[in-house]
Design brief:
Elements: E1 2-4, E2 10-15, E3 21-28, H1 42-50, H2 59-68, E4 72-77, E5 82-89, H3 93-105, H4 111-129, H5 132-145, H6 158-163, H7 166-176, E6 182-188, H8 192-201, E7 223-227, E8 233-240, H9 247-261, H10 267-275, E9 279-289, E10 292-301, H11 306-323, H12 328-345, H13 349-361, H14 369-377, H15 381-392, E11 398-403
Parallel strand pairs: 2-6, 7-11
Antiparallel strand pairs: 1-2, 3-5, 3-6, 4-5, 8-10, 8-11, 9-10
Helix pairs in contact: 1-7, 3-8, 9-12, 9-15, 10-11, 11-15, 12-14
Length: 411
């Protein structure tokens, strides 16, 4: 159930009778993709600073009350969204909404806490930089999107982080938490009283306007090498793919991705790992956003075989598109796997919440797992071939390589 209050605030409820718990989320559609060049990492910084309490409740008091309620508590930032959320017993929904909502709509952003979290985020950036998978993927995003919009690093960088002070955080958060951007979502064994309370609790927030997502421009065919002393060569290969608003195209792309590189029966796995012996791990993934989407082929490869293996990964997509379409068995296997995983996801309130909030952020559309399973079940061989051709023909792939490779390899 999705509805909108007169002040622009979007509410979403999913009742799961019989459960003893409920998840309470307050979020904004304004994720990191909205940041300008000098705002890099600012919304993620706001996420950390949110936990510093409100003018009425200190950070320590918030944490104490959450623990007394027995709830788990979390916050996250994505390119399309920022959310603060928690899991509580169903009897504590109203108080949980008070806590989470007040942190979101009335944060204090105390200077000492903001300065402390800056140090924490610097450690987070350093940790990510030590992960070669993250590094090579972000390098590919920087090429493919020129480091803007959905291609910009959510964490930002050290130089930008130094400029984000308390005043800047407070002013930026006013735009992020505008009622036209904001969502309140609850899932679990909800009562009518719980939903009524949510409607009334924040109905008097003043109506404020936010921003709309714009498509991030794609720059296909870019190549780059990050020479590092590694034992493997990491590659990330990006193709433009359907956006979140294209529901049918997204489902077809998911099936294609499963055929290409999801598990031991996938084409990339069989060719690159089993036939060539060039990798321990080679995979395909489909990442989707509002107005944007991309298919990523990635692997950690043997330094002596990496070039042929990388070409083989791209060649498998070409074959599906134009030469060797997927067999009925391949498509059936991928479809059945995705239907089963969807059935499992539908029993997990955390996953249900993520999917529902993504749908809400994309424009207040109802989302059901039955609908998702129906769309997956409708995908056939021709549908997979068509989406593969659309993706492969969208432009030359963008490739980022990290490892013991000549820096002039692509020149």
């Amino acid at each position: 159930m999705i509805e909108r209050l007169p002040n622009g605030l979007t509410l979403g409820f999913r009742q799961l009778p019989g459960r003893q718990t409920a998840r309470v989320c307050v979020a904004s559609r304004m994720g990191s993709r909205y940041e300008k060049e000098d705002e890099r990492g600012l919304i993620h910084f706001c996420e950390h600073a949110l936990l510093g309490g409100t003018k009425a409740i200190s950070s320590a008091e918030v944490k104490k009350e959450i623990e007394l309620l027995g709830g788990g508590f979390n916050a996250f930032t994505s390119h399309d969204m920022i959310s603060i959320e928690g899991d509580f017993t169903r009897h504590d929904c109203s108080r949980a909404l008070d806590l989470v909502g007040e942190l979101f709509f009335h944060p204090a952003f105390p200077k000492a806490f903001v300065d402390q979290e800056r140090k924490v985020i610097l450690q987070e950036i350093a940790m990510n930089r030590d992960d070669p998978w993250d590094t090579v993927s972000q390098g590919a995003y920087d090429l493919f999107y020129r480091g803007k919009g959905v291609g910009a690093a959510i964490l930002g960088d050290e130089e930008a982080l130094k400029t984000h002070n308390v005043t800047r955080v407070r002013n930026y958060w006013k735009r992020v938490s505008a009622t036209s951007n904001s969502l309140i979502y609850m899932v679990g064994n909800l009562t009518e009283a719980d939903m009524k309370y949510a409607r009334e609790r924040y109905a008097d927030l003043p109506k404020t306007s936010g921003r709309c997502a714009r498509k991030t421009t794609v720059y296909a065919g870019k190549r780059s090498v990050d020479t590092q002393d590694k034992d493997q060569v990491y590659v990330s290969i990006l193709f433009e793919a359907p956006e979140l608003e294209d529901q049918k195209g997204c489902i077809q792309a998911e099936v294609l991705s499963a055929v290409l590189g999801a598990g031991m029966n996938s084409r990339i796995w069989k060719r690159v790992r089993e036939k060539m012996g060039a990798a321990y791990d080679a995979r395909s993934s489909f990442d989707v956003f509002r107005r944007n989407g991309h298919l990523e082929l990635s692997a950690a490869l043997d330094p002596k075989k990496w070039e042929k293996a990388m070409d083989a990964m791209i060649d498998e997509l070409r074959k599906v598109a134009h030469q060797k379409p997927p067999s009925k068995r391949e498509v059936d296997c991928a479809v059945k796997g995705l239907v089963r995983s969807t059935t499992i996801m539908a029993d997990d309130p955390l996953v249900v919440a993520d999917y529902d909030m993504t749908a809400m952020a994309a424009g207040c559309r109802e989302f059901t797992f039955d609908r998702r399973k129906d769309l997956i079940s409708q995908v056939n061989q021709q549908g997979v071939r068509d989406i593969a051709a659309s993706i492969f023909d969208s432009g030359e792939p963008t490739v980022q390589v990290l490892g013991p490779v000549d820096s002039d390899f692509f020149s």
